[in-house]
Structures are given as structure tokens and as C-alpha cells.
Backbone:
């Protein structure tokens, strides 16, 4: 890494850290009330101005041309306080990743150049799904030079907010799915109400019905799984960085609380049983931090077996975060369950993060099948 | 083969036979009629779930997200109309008289449909448990009458238990911590009663309860020896409700702040204080510890059953999902990995149920309902016409002699071993059941993938609801230490628990 790259990354880290503490943390509880409270448009707007949605886009597509390590740094910082914005950044990066994998750098540049406000740039994507695992995808019928989409797509993340979406669909007769870019303002698209969800309240998803909705094929037909694999490789690491941020936030919250709260005439931090629990939390967090750094290095250096490193790190960290955030609540006792503290949200968000990019158990099965083969 | 004295000596070695063979011992001791009663209360709960809870639980959760100040009176009234708040009140006090050994099974059923609704009904019995732990028959009789009247006139009369304070969670629940803790609810003895000041927080169902069983302290520096249990009625001058907590789950069951500001509570609402405790065999501090053991032994058994219920709910949702969906090209239910996880979840439910069932036996033989499980007493009450009981007992309960007699039996005749067994198994059931609830809810989310995070698929709500069970009634961390204290520590006389030695 060159010195100027390092400097840029440090600046990005500082900017995202300040953003997390000064913009996200103070309004976390209120922002989490969506869809029963106002949407945090001003937060998304600020993130847009700071180019958080352009991080991994190459320069020729209108982006900052950073490596996967850069988006991991930003997501780590942001998710310490509020994973919803992290969910928006990641979902958008996934959609952009599919467009780029399909050879659509020009298209992406066009979108980025014309976007004057965040939701003109942001692209909805079914971020919690690996389309290969599902048999009920929308169908795509050829018409003229384009395609018409029909059928249901559940849980399209950012579906109710953005103008465009990248969605999987199957062309009749094809063996597997393809990806399409579709305008959600299209008269053939019915976007449902925001789905009430476990975490990520301000990164909402909607169920969508396509009824002969015009769409553009991205890249080649039947290449969906290839594009998904290209995108998901590094993006799994980005999802893990979100989990890492949640873990770091949980650890800080737990240490702060246990250092101040007194029960039985002693500070909680002085109970050795509590020290054990805090130690587990700290160990898991440090392990996750090391794994991500190492896996980022493997990706950036295009090491021979980088995908295995990424898969292993991701499976481990996403699972560890769910347990660790649960311990985080235990360390806070009753207040850990209340919305005034951030920990209950971290607990929910960790569960949500684990579902990103497909079924947790399927990820494990694919991992071992690859090793066995 | 072995002499009686030799047998007794060997069986007294750790693990003591009496500690670990509760169900076996209960087989002969427990009245057989309880089996039929358990079947009936499970059926009552299942019917309530089918007709009331399941059709409304997700909608109610959504309403609570939208309006955190909403109170679920509609649901409480339906429970009241179906007699759920008098189900376990003894017949001698006008209740339906189902044996308290049925409570755990009832709790599991309710929690299998909704953790919040399980609390809307179950927390009332937590208050009942605290009330009964004082064995003040006069007050018990009066409050039970209010509950029964509430059922008749359609206005639920619910009970809450108030111990936790802003700076005292664990400190308020263990005598070991009370004197070094930061308790602040002060009681001052005055002519004809007590004047109390202070704040209680996280009081489940506080805003919806009519009677609140409150622990306050006449000397905050030596609270373990100066605890007073009072029954305070909503509307009493100097008593008001503060905020309702905004919780992650169990949203329909409010967690309330109770504020006492020079609130006068008359002597006839004092359940037990030092004047009563000083007449008992044990020291006042030991008696307070015994009261805690009675309460926690029963209530933590119930929380363990809630945990078993949520573990079951998660299992049932995951099973339904696996039956109805395909993944990776084939039916989930036929994929071995999925079958294996479902079996793991089923196992968690069974273990949780066995744990609270054993704790139930401990309570039945040695704990809160040992008197009513005494066979002659059980069958006398069961077969005596309600009219006769309701004529005799309210009058008898007004006699101080009856309270003295019951306290003698329940406090003085309970051995230390029995106390350990009840409290230890309560902690065990709670830890096992509620950990199973979380483990299964997590597995359900993993099995269901992106469908799992949707509120309309219920699994995520089960996870949110389950988490509170690991926290309240003492965190599972504290309950592990209590399990050590009650059932393990006595094997090593040099050991101490809840002690600064651990720093």
C-alpha cells in the first residue's frame, strides 16, 4: 500500500468515526423508530455528501476507487453506533458490484453522474438472498430489445426508497437466473409497505410485485450466479466488518457500564464471573478484527486461496457477533434490553447481519463442499 | 444387603438422593389428582392461545412498536373473562383452585404462543407468589377477594411484584447484597402503618396492576434485617406511576416505574415485617432469605417454563417453515442438516421442560405449595363444596392464629436443605429454560434465512421476547452463582459465594 493510499484510508476512518459518534449515536433511538417515526433523510444526505456510497466504485464509474479494506473501515466505524446506515451502504455496494461484474462500468458512471441526491444514486437489492438457493424467482420475458419482469420478489432492501433496483429473474428455458436493472417507478412495479423487521429499521425492505415491468438485462443471460459470486466474495467481508463494528460497539458499551455500575458493593467489572464474560466479548472482538484485516490483505493481494479465507472469516464473525451481542445485553442487565441504550439494537442488527448474502447454514455447507471437492 | 442407617448415610453424600431424584420421590408423595389438573390447564391455555393470542399477537406487537404507551387492556380483559387470573388461587380464597404444580405447564403453553401475553397473565401470579410467601392469611384473603370480584365485574384486578430500584437490581434480590448495596426505598414506621418514599423500576405490568407487592426498608444500611413487605393499592395517595420502559420485546407487557412519595400504607396492608419475623425460629435476616427462596424457587421455575415455551415456539415456527419451503432445489424438511437442527431444537425444548418439571416437584414437596400438596389437605379442599369453603375460610383467615399456624409450618418447619433445593432448582430451571429459548430462537432465524428477520414470520419476535427471560428475576449469570450457592457450595465448607473474596 502506498503512503498516499494509507493517508486516504486514515482520513476515511476519521471521517466515518466522527460521523458515527456525532451524527448517528445521538439520534440512534429516534432513527430506529422507522417506519413508525420519520426517516433519517438528513443522515443519508450527509453520508451521500461524504461519498460513503461511492467507496468501492472505480474512478471510471464515478467512484473513489477504494479497495475492499476501505469499505470495511467505514462499515466498522459506522456500525458501532447504528447498522442501518451500514446496511444502506452495503446493499448499494452489492447492487453496484453486480452491475460492475456484468461489465456495466459505463452504466454505473451514468447513474453516478446524474445522481444529485442520495436516492437517485442508491440502488435497491435483495441483500439477504443468494438467488441460487431459491426456486421461486420472478420470470423475465423477452420483448423487443428488453425484458418484461413478472412475479414476486420478497424483501427487496431499499425497495421503497430508491428509484432503481438490481433484481434476479429467470428467463423461461434458461437453466439459471440472470440479473436485471429495473426502474421501481415503472408502472408495472408494485412496491409494498416497508416490512417490519428484526434489525436495520432505517434500512427498510419491501416486497415487490412485477407485472410485465420493463427491465434491462445486466451482462449476459444465465450469468447471474457468476456475477453474484464475484460480488459476494469481497462483500461478505464487508458484511463481516459490519458485524465487527457491532461487536466493538457492544464491547465499549459493556466496559463503560460495568466500570460504573455497582452491585453488591462492588463495581460489576470487579466481579470475576463478569470479567469472564467481558473477556469472552473482548477475545471475540479482537479475533474478528484480526480475521478481517488478514482476509482484506488476502483479497487485495489476490492470494491464491483468498475466497476460502474470506468465507471462513465471514462465517465465523457473523455467528460470533450474534452470541457476543447477547452477552453484551447480559452485561448491562435490565437496561441492556431497553431502547435508551444501544445494545438491544446491536443484538437485533447482529441477527440481521447474519442473514446477509444468503442462508447462514447454506454458506457453511458450500464452504465444506468446496473443501471436500 | 445394606442397613437402613448405612443407606441413609450413603444417600446423604453428594449428590444427595433427595436433591437429584425429585420426580421419583414426588411419584408417591404428590396427589394423583394433579395429573388431571395439569391436562385441564394445558387445554385451557391452548384454547386461549388458539382463540385469543395467536390471532392477535403479531398485530399487538406492531401496535406497541407504533405506540409504546398503548396498554393491552383488551387482552387482559379477555384473560380475565376466561378466569385465567383466578385459575391458581386456592378454592379457600374463592379461586378456581387448580394446583400450583400446574403453573409451569400453563406458562409453557402461553409462552409458546406469545412471550408478552404469557407475562400479561404470568406476572400476576408472580405477585401472588410474593403475597403468599408472607403467609399473611388476612391480607391474602382480602386481595384474593378483590381478584375474584374483578373477574365477576369484568375489571381485571392484577398483582405486580416490586423489588428492583434504579441503582439496585441484584442488590434488591439477595440478602447478601442488601447491606452493601444502593437500595433507596425507605419505610418509616409511624402510627398505624408505614410511610414510604422511593422509586421502583422495571416493574412488569405495573401500570395495569391494582395491587403492588413492594419490598421497602426501614434501615437502608442494614436492609437485610429491616425489610418490610407491603401491599400498595393503585390510587393510594403518595403513590404514582412514572415512565414505561421502551423494551426490545415483550412489548405488550409494560415495565413500569412506581414512585412513592411519603406514601402512607396502613398496618393492615403490611404483609410481613420485623414484628412478625422476630417471632419465627430463624433470625430476621435468615427469614428474609427464606422468603426470597420461596419467591424465587417458584417464580424462576415459571420463567424456566416461559423459556421452554419460547424454545418450543421457535421450534414450531422453524418446523413449519421447513415443511413449507424449498432451499437449494429441494424441500428443506428432507435435508439432513435441517433435520439435525430441528432435532437439536426439539431436544432443547425437552430439556427445558424436564428442568422446570423437576423444579415444580421441588416446590410441591418443599416450597411454596407444600401445604396444599399435602395429600389430606389436597383432597379435603378438592372435595369439599365451594360454598362450604367460602363460608368457613374467609372467617378463619381473619384470625391471627391461622397466620401464626401457617407461618410455623412454612417457615419454621422448612429445613435448610429444603430451602436450598427449592431455590437451587428454581435457578437451574430458569437458566436451562431461558438459554434454550434463546438458542432455539437463534436457530429458527438461521433456518429461515431472510424470512426469519421479518416480524410477520414471528421468529424474530420470539427472539426479542426470549431475551428478557435471561435477564429478569436475576440475570442468568446471578442465577448460576445462586445455583452454586444452593446445591454445590455446601460440599466445600471453605467456599463462599456473593463475596468480596471473588474480586
Residues:
Amino acid at each position: 500500500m502506498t503512503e498516499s493510499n494509507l493517508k486516504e484510508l486514515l482520513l476515511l476512518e476519521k471521517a466515518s468515526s466522527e460521523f458515527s459518534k456525532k451524527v448517528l449515536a445521538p439520534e440512534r433511538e429516534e432513527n430506529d423508530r422507522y417506519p413508525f417515526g420519520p426517516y433519517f433523510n438528513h443522515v443519508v444526505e450527509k453520508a451521500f455528501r461524504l461519498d460513503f456510497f461511492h467507496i468501492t466504485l472505480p474512478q471510471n464509474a464515478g467512484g473513489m476507487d477504494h479497495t475492499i479494506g476501505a469499505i470495511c473501515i467505514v462499515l466498522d466505524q459506522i456500525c458501532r453506533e447504528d447498522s442501518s446506515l451500514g446496511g444502506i451502504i452495503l446493499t448499494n455496494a452489492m447492487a453496484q458490484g453486480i452491475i460492475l461484474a456484468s461489465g456495466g462500468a459505463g452504466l454505473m458512471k451514468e447513474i453516478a453522474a446524474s445522481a444529485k441526491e442520495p436516492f437517485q444514486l442508491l440502488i435497491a437489492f435483495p441483500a439477504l438472498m443468494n438467488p441460487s438457493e431459491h426456486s421461486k424467482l420472478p420470470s423475465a420475458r423477452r420483448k423487443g430489445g428488453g425484458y418484461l419482469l413478472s412475479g414476486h420478489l420478497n424483501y427487496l432492501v431499499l425497495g421503497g426508497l430508491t428509484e432503481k433496483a438490481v433484481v434476479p429473474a429467470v428467463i423461461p428455458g434458461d437453466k439459471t437466473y440472470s440479473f436485471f436493472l429495473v426502474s421501481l417507478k415503472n408502472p408495472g412495479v408494485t412496491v409494498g409497505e416497508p416490512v417490519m423487521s428484526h434489525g436495520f429499521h432505517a434500512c427498510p425492505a419491501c416486497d415487490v410485485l412485477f407485472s410485465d415491468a420493463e427491465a434491462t438485462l445486466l451482462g449476459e443471460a444465465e450469468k447471474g450466479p457468476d456475477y453474484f459470486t464475484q460480488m459476494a466474495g469481497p462483500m461478505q467481508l464487508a458484511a463481516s466488518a459490519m458485524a465487527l463494528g457491532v461487536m466493538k460497539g457492544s464491547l465499549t458499551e459493556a466496559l463503560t457500564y460495568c466500570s460504573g455500575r455497582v452491585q453488591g458493593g462492588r463495581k460489576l467489572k470487579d466481579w470475576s464471573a463478569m470479567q469472564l464474560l467481558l473477556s469472552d466479548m473482548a477475545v471475540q472482538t479482537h479475533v474478528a478484527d484480526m480475521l478481517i484485516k488478514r482476509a482484506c490483505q488476502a483479497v487485495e493481494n489476490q492470494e491464491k486461496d483468498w475466497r476460502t479465507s474470506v468465507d471462513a472469516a465471514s462465517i465465523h464473525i457473523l455467528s460470533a457477533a450474534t452470541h457476543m451481542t447477547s452477552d453484551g445485553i447480559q452485561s448491562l442487565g435490565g437496561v441492556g434490553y431497553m431502547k435508551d441504550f444501544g445494545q438491544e439494537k446491536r443484538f437485533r442488527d447482529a441477527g440481521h447481519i447474519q442473514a446477509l448474502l444468503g442462508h447462514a447454514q447454506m454458506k457453511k455447507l458450500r464452504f465444506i463442499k468446496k473443501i471436500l471437492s | 444387603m445394606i442397613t437402613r442407617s448405612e443407606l441413609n448415610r450413603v444417600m446423604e453424600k453428594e449428590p444427595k438422593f433427595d436433591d437429584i431424584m425429585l420426580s421419583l420421590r414426588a411419584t408417591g408423595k404428590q396427589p394423583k389428582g394433579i395429573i388431571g389438573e395439569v391436562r385441564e390447564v394445558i387445554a385451557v391455555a391452548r384454547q386461549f392461545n388458539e382463540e385469543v393470542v395467536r390471532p392477535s399477537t403479531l398485530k399487538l406487537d406492531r401496535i406497541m412498536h407504533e405506540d409504546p404507551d398503548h396498554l393491552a387492556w383488551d387482552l387482559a380483559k379477555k384473560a380475565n373473562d376466561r378466569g385465567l387470573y383466578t385459575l391458581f388461587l386456592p378454592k379457600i380464597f374463592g379461586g378456581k383452585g387448580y394446583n400450583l404444580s400446574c403453573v409451569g405447564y400453563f406458562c409453557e403453553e402461553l409462552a409458546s404462543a406469545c412471550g408478552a401475553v404469557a407475562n400479561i397473565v404470568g406476572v400476576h401470579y408472580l405477585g401472588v407468589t410474593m403475597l403468599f410467601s408472607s403467609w399473611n392469611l388476612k391480607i391474602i384473603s382480602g386481595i384474593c377477594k378483590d381478584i375474584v370480584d374483578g373477574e365477576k365485574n369484568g375489571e381485571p384486578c392484577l398483582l405486580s411484584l416490586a423489588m428492583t430500584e434504579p441503582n439496585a437490581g441484584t442488590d434488591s434480590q439477595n440478602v447478601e447484597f442488601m447491606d452493601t448495596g444502593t437500595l433507596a426505598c425507605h419505610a418509616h414506621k409511624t402510627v398505624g402503618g408505614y410511610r414510604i418514599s422511593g422509586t421502583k423500576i422495571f416493574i412488569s405490568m405495573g401500570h395495569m396492576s391494582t395491587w403492588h407487592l413492594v419490598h421497602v426498608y426501614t434501615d437502608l444500611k442494614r436492609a437485610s434485617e429491616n425489610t418490610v413487605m407491603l401491599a400498595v393499592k393503585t390510587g393510594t395517595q403518595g403513590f404514582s406511576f412514572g415512565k414505561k420502559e421502551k423494551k426490545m420485546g415483550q412489548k405488550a407487557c409494560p415495565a413500569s416505574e412506581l414512585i412513592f412519595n411519603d406514601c402512607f400504607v396502613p398496618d393492615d396492608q403490611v404483609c410481613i415485617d420485623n414484628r412478625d419475623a422476630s417471632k419465627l425460629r430463624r433470625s430476621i435476616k435468615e427469614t428474609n432469605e427464606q422468603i426470597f427462596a420461596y419467591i424465587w424457587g417458584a417464580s424462576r421455575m415459571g420463567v424456566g417454563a416461559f423459556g421452554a415455551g419460547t424454545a418450543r415456539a421457535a421450534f414450531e415456527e422453524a418446523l413449519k417453515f421447513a415443511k413449507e419451503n424449498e432451499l437449494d432445489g429441494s424441500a428443506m424438511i428432507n435435508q439432513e442438516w435441517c433435520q439435525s437442527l430441528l432435532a437439536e431444537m426439539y431436544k432443547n425444548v425437552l430439556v427445558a421442560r424436564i428442568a422446570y418439571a423437576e423444579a415444580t416437584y421441588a416446590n410441591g414437596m418443599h416450597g411454596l405449595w407444600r401445604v396444599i400438596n399435602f395429600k389430606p389437605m389436597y383432597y379435603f379442599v378438592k372435595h369439599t363444596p365451594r360454598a362450604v369453603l367460602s363460608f368457613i375460610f374467609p372467617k378463619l383467615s381473619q384470625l391471627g392464629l391461622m397466620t401464626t399456624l401457617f407461618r410455623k409450618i412454612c417457615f419454621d418447619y422448612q429445613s435448610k436443605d429444603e430451602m436450598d433445593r427449592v431455590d437451587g432448582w428454581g435457578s437451574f430451571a430458569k437458566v436451562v429454560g431461558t438459554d434454550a429459548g434463546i438458542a432455539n430462537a437463534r436457530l429458527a432465524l438461521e433456518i429461515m434465512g431472510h424470512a426469519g428477520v421479518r416480524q410477520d414470520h414471528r421468529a424474530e419476535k420470539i427472539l426479542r421476547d426470549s431475551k428478557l427471560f435471561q435477564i429478569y428475576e436475576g440475570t442468568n449469570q446471578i442465577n448460576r452463582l445462586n445455583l452454586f450457592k444452593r446445591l454445590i457450595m455446601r460440599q466445600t465448607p471453605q467456599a463462599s459465594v456473593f463475596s468480596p473474596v471473588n474480586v
